[in-house]
Amino acid sequence: MTALPHHHPAPVEHDVRSLGAVVVSAVVLVALLVGAAGVLGSVVDLAGWALSGS
């Protein structure tokens, strides 16, 4: 009697949860970069105002 080979399903390459995690992390990274640019702009404005001698 021969044993039948056990069938393993092929792994799913594009998992929806993984794609969702990548999209969410990209959105968070962009939001952090935009926030950092805003804070840096405010600091530069404040420094310029403080050094203007008004």
Task: Please sum up the structure shown.
The protein has 54 residues and is mainly alpha-helical. 67% of the residues lie in helices and 0% in strands.
Walk me through what this model shows.
With 54 residues, the protein is an all-alpha fold. It is built from one helix and no strands.
Keywords:
single chain, 54 residues, mainly alpha, 1 helix, rod-shaped
Largest sheet report = none
SSE pattern = H
Uncertain segments:
none
- For the termini, the CA-CA separation is 97 Å
The total of beta strands comes to 0
Keywords: Membrane, Transmembrane, Transmembrane helix
Write the layout of secondary structure elements.
Blueprint: H1 16-51
